[in-house]
Design a protein that fits this description.
Blueprint (H helix, E strand, L loop, with lengths): L4 H4 L23 H10 L1 H15 L6 E7 L6 H7 L9 E5 L5 H4 L5 H5 L7 E5 L8 H4 L5 H20 L2 E9 L2 H13 L10 H7 L1 H14 L7 E5 L3 H19 L10 H10 L5
Parallel strand pairs: 1-3, 1-4, 2-3, 4-5
Length: 282
């Protein structure tokens, strides 16, 4: 089952998230079992391409991938990490979950902590929330003035263009869920003592400002949806579709990079003969 990635890519221009069905399954049959099977089937190729990228990084290549997962609470960022990113070797992955900035981080430019968390060459970096918090929650709560927020959109675009020039492929996914689905997921957490640790009373405070967050997302998506680092809006009411869609976006990025196994920097035949002829000293 191969989804239509073009249907997930956000077109240029104004954004209206209300026009995008969060329960949709564009390009698929809508079959949950088939979707889960399709996700599992991607594992081998994802792992192979990730290992090739990692191998390239050991020989001086600067190429890497940055997967940005942005979405409201319960949109499924953690689920993507477990079920999608979990398909590949953790040695070549760096996951960073951005929380509220520390006192030290507040003393620096808003991109300071982001730059410190970028993946090393050959790696896949994953941001669970990201630099976009500084034009989303900051905008909703008016922790910065409009002029500052406006300048940050431009700074983000410049930052992502610099990343691309350095060999970083940026894959940006906005996990799009409905208010009803969020209520359902929050209720499930409250109903299950094993899930109470995942519940944050602040999530209910954020729900009250649902329309404000939607507007902030729409503006951020429109202002930072560039050709170099385009946005993909992933319908996320259905977990299986969300996981499969992000996996296929990541796979498409790696296929486009087409990483290659590095050539040996030694004489393979000589080393093969040595291995066959030489015995270890007891």
């Amino acid at each position: 089952m191969m989804l239509s990635m073009s249907e997930l890519r956000l077109p240029p221009g104004p954004v209206d998230l209300r026009a995008i069905d969060p329960s949709g399954t564009p390009g698929s049959s809508g079959d949950k079992a088939a979707g889960k099977q399709a996700l599992a089937a991607l594992g081998d190729e994802l792992s192979d391409l990730q290992e090739r990228l990692f191998a390239e990084g050991t020989t001086g290549s600067t190429r890497r991938v940055l997967l940005v997962l942005q979405g409201v609470d319960t949109s499924g960022k953690g689920g993507v990490l477990r079920h999608t990113v979990g398909l590949i070797d953790p040695q070549g992955v760096r996951i960073t979950s951005f929380k509220a900035p520390s006192e030290e981080e507040k003393q620096h430019h808003f991109l300071w902590r982001i730059k410190r968390a970028l993946p090393q060459p050959g790696h896949i970096g994953v941001f669970d929330r990201s630099h976009y918090e500084d034009v989303l929650i900051v905008k909703v709560h008016e922790w910065a003035d409009d002029r500052t927020i406006e300048s940050r959109y431009d700074q983000i675009n410049e930052f992502e263009a610099e990343l691309a020039a350095e060999g970083v492929v940026v894959v940006k996914c906005m996990l799009h869920i409905s208010a009803d689905k969020q209520r359902e997921r929050l209720a499930e957490r409250l109903a299950n003592p094993d899930k109470h640790w995942k519940f944050n009373p602040g999530d209910l405070d954020a729900r009250v400002r649902w329309s404000d967050y939607r507007t902030a997302y729409e503006t951020a998506l429109e202002r930072t949806n560039t050709e170099i680092a385009p946005w993909h809006v992933v319908p996320s009411d259905r977990k299986w579709f969300r996981n499969l869609a992000v996996a296929q976006l990541l796979l498409a990025a790696l296929r486009g990079m087409n990483p290659q196994w590095p050539a040996a920097d030694f004489d393979v035949e000589v080393e093969r003969r040595r291995l066959a002829e030489e015995e270890p000293v007891a």
